[in-house]
Amino acid sequence: METTTRSKGRLFIISAPSGAGKTTLCRRLLAYYPDIVYSISYTTRRPRLGEKEGKDYHFISRENFLEKKALDYWAEWARVHGHYYGTSAVFLSDSLARGRDVLMDIDVQGAMQILTRFPEAVTIFIMPPSMDVLRQRLTQRGTDSRAVIEKRLENAAREMEQKDLYRHVIVNDDLEIVMNELIGIVKR
Question: For the residues 160-166, what does the mean pLDDT come to?
Answer without folding.
Answer: 93
